[in-house]
């Protein structure tokens, strides 16, 4: 089987994919991979010794770095201006790593170990990385750290877009976590009670609290779903183009609903996640206008007639966009909405 025209390439693909995913992306050593391949019974077909696997890993690493150098050399002498949407963040392992990615491709533009993550440090590493590259940065996505916002506005000269992931995560750590904790405590008290007459009144009270908290939790999750489906260049129910003002207004309505929920159930929201979210509304929505500007610019250089432009924007682009979103997400509720 392994010597067939199908089997041999597949076996090669298995080895390369395993080394790529587990060695490069997960930091697993070749000793574990050698054991893995022996457990699969492939030691007769594959050189699974630790030294053999290390040799393959070294060859792959060389090719990856060669590819990086090739891409960077092409970016240094582009035939046409290259536009990029980037994201910046700090990753915290045993040391702080400053990372800047090109969002569509995942290409790493900056990856520097640093002692700190102040604006001056970001500015230095960004200048070093981008000075030779012919890039026009359309916008920069980040959390709302002051150094990263300043980096976008002052150093890159582009809009600073808030990251929806961080915004929703803070809401989850605040209001979402508080609702879950309350519901857990009520459920635990309810289960601890026996069915005696003396506990009947207390059980009834707990059932009322339980029902109210479950309703609040469902409403909270529905709002998060609405926020996720709102932040798109097209209105998901109507299919028409949205502006940043329309998205910001919708986010404000959802924030108002969250505020009512907070008051109704007297949630403390100690991290202040709701107020943080409300301050980010404008920066979250700003990406929508940037997206449509890019669409108009792309169509203008192709000299399309008006009817073709309208067909692209009203029919082709929405169909392709929502299909792409449904493929990207692994969340069933979002996949259903996008479809």
Which strand order do you get reading across the main beta sheet? 3-2-1-4-5
* Spans of at least 5 consecutive residues with low confidence: none
Quick check: average pLDDT? 90
Oligomer: single chain
What general form does the structure show?
Answer: globular
Terminal Cα span: 40 Å
Query: Whole-number radius of gyration?
Result: 26 Å
Helix content: 55-70%
Total strands: the figure is 5
Sheet-strand content, in percent, reads 5-15%
Question: Helices and strands, in N-to-C order?
Answer: HHHEEEHEHEHHHHHH
Structural classification: alpha/beta
Largest sheet, in brief, is: 5 strands, mixed
Annotation field: number of helices = 11
Relevant terms:
five-stranded mixed beta sheet, 339 residues, 11 helices, alpha/beta
What does this structure look like?
This protein has a five-stranded mixed beta sheet. The radius of gyration is 26 Å and the shape is globular. With 339 residues, it is an alpha/beta fold. It has helices at residues 7-24, 30-39, 50-76, 119-130, 146-156, 164-192, 200-230, 244-264, 273-300, 306-328, 332-338; strands spanning 82-92, 96-102, 108-114, 135-142, 160-162. 64% of the residues lie in helices and 11% in strands. Helix 2 (30-39) packs across helix 3. Strand 2 and strand 3 form a beta hairpin. It has eleven helices and five strands, in the order H-H-H-E-E-E-H-E-H-E-H-H-H-H-H-H.
